Amino acid sequence: MKKREILLLMAITGLLAACGTAEQPGAAPDDWEAKPFAETNEGDFIYRLAAESDSFKAGGPISMYAELEYTGERDSIDIYHAASPFYFHLHEKTRDFEVPYPMNEPLITTTLIKGEPLREQYRGSGGYAQEDPEAYQEFVQGVMNGRFPEGFYEVDGSANFYTGNPEADKTDYDIHAAIRFKVVE
User: Fold this and answer.
1) pTM
2) Which residues form the signal peptide (predicted)?
3) 80: left (phi over 0), alpha (psi -120 to 50) or beta
4) Rounded to an integer, what distance in angstroms lies between the CA atom of residue 69 and that of residue 116?
5) Neighbour tally for 29: CB within 10 Å
6) Measured on CA atoms in the order 21, 24, 27, 33, is the torsion positive or negative?
7) Residue 37 exposure: Cα atoms within 13 Å on the Cβ side
8) How far is residue 153's CA from residue 114's CA, in Å, rounded to a whole number?
């Protein structure tokens, strides 16, 4: 009986210790540093991703945008993309929660004028399955409603489009840039 009680006590202690090591919202990952602006050049295009600040208030929205600028030799160029060429994939680092950025996929043509960036403001994102943990569902619901919970966020933004004729000279682009910001009480 004594041996069984000791094993039970060790198991409970192990479980409690494991629960206490999980990162809590507000605890910065070791390698975390704010980076509210990023820019990537690819071919004749510049992709920019920016947050209006490196810190936002918990429970409120965040202000973030993406830009795509054509810098080639022509006066303009047509790009072909889904509902938008811009994607905003969120990752909250302390909870290790990823928030998807689903999008309708019609084929849309946008004409970019040389030197005039196409800009799109982030408008929220998310989605979850009924089987996902309740904490994740609540987190994503907050993000979807513009109420960002406290935490450390990394955004892998991208511009996904193609140029040219799919039958002849099609060129695919998937340009990425990453930014980081925090949401605090």
Assistant:
1) 0.82
2) 1-17
3) beta
4) 6
5) 12
6) positive
7) 2
8) 32
Grouping H, G, I as helix, E, B as strand and the rest as coil, residue 64 is strand
Q: How far apart are CA 84 and CA 81, in angstroms?
A: 6
Place of tokens 């907050």: 142
Domain boundaries, the chain: 33-184
Q: Which residue has the higher pLDDT, 24 or 31?
A: 31
pLDDT in tens, 47-76: 999 999 999 999 999 999 999 999 999 999
Distance CA(72)–CA(59), nearest Å, equals: 42
- Of residues 84, 34, 61, 33, the one with CA closest to residue 142: 61
Instruction: Indicate the residue type of 140.
Output: V
Residue 87 token pair: 């994607």
CATH architecture classification, 33-184: Sandwich (2.60)
